[in-house]
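Archive entry. Fields below.
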Amino acid sequence: MIEAQNISKAFDGKEVIKDISITFDQGKTNLIIGASGTGKSVLLKCIVGLIQPDQGHVLFDGRDFTNAGKNLKTQIRREIGMLFQGGALFDSMTVEENVMFPLNVLTTMEKEEKLDRVNHCLERVELTNVNTKMPSELSGGMKKRVGIARAIVNHSKYLFCDEPNSGLDPQTSITIDNLIKEITEELNITTVVVTHDMNSVMEIGNKVSFIHQGQKLWEGNNESIFDCEVKELQDFIFANNLMRNVKRQRS
Amino acid sequence: MASLGRFILFVGSMFVRRESFLTYVRLTVNEGIKIGINSIFIVSIVSIFIGAVTTLQTAYNLVSPFIPNYVISLVVRDMTILELAPTVMAIVYAGKVGSNIAGELGTMRISEQIDALEVMGINSASYLVLPKIIASFFMYPMLVVLSAFLCITGGYLAGTLTGTLTGYEYVYGIRYEFVEWNVTFALIKSFTFALVVASISAYKGYFTSGGALEVGQASTAAVTNSCIGILTADFLLTKLLI
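PREDICTED_STRUCTURE:
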């Protein structure tokens, strides 16, 4: 479980995150949703420690990450897997080397053992015969899958996904969403997904937090989201016809 | 002053939370190949031509019949060891290796690859930059030695093939009143310039933000600032050591 408590962050005097508190449950896909520029990614970066929040704490299973010493911080970070918006695969390495990278640097495993683990993870994300390919030879969806494989290869306890569906076609988006959900349940990890894709909310939103202009305005799940009375969230959800139709059908 | 402080903190951050020694050995060897071996071609071409041109231009300027021909190669030798090989090559090195380091790190920064390392609990400054600096520290002096040899060889070829002086005169001049300290001085300069180029370029690349435009600007700034750093260090070392 991850607890973000009273997180605030300002850049050049402009408050981007305003006193946000969210709890992310273990074994669930926890979604942070909101329109572009509302501070979702900044919040995610505050949680994983890429940005130091001005105020507040982040607790990973009760361990204070924000004020942790170097050793504890490194230990917690090594339990984190993250899928970045563009995949963030290392350009100079093959797919296999990319996925094996955390094992090479963070463990003392034998080469065969590492290779087995890498192949297992690649199979899990439905990628075969791509071990020797370079990231530049992969499609957007494949890059995301390799990113997921790299994020889970070291048996991460926490998985963070920043806009996992950006730039993907609807079918590939659904595949990635399902993959994230299945992995979360299978490995019983705490997954946090930042997205503005309503399809993702409907597919995998076990727990959903809505952020608007740096503030958390609503929390619930993909079932209760249609019954919310927060105007900003309604504007966000029903911005497209598809969601309006879904609501009509449900009611 | 803020940039200087940030640069010092950046250099300091490389020495905390390091990975295993073997990891650095592997990375340093890879960087050594990239930085050193891949620079041999350009260094060789530039050195041979600089040596050849220096010989011909020195001969052109020494028109007095009272000055023996071997003075030409003596001038080429001292110019090569004191300035051309360590300093001029450092400018070439900054253009090739410095811009490469800044471009690579800048691209890694904007494509979130550095963030990915940090999230994994790896000290990205130490992991990415320290091997480049160590590799540069060891490879650049070797390039300087090669450059000096090829520069003098280029001078020999140009001098003898154009009939400016004989091979005997050239070799006599090269050996005439040779000061060993000059070689030590050139090596001290080369170690210093290696650190200047690698650290300034890495700093510029590592703190890139934005997009492709900013990566290009970081590469340009890396070369420009490295050149200023090289020339300043050159002046200070010459003042202090000669």
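CURATOR_NOTE: The radius of gyration of chain A is 18 Å.
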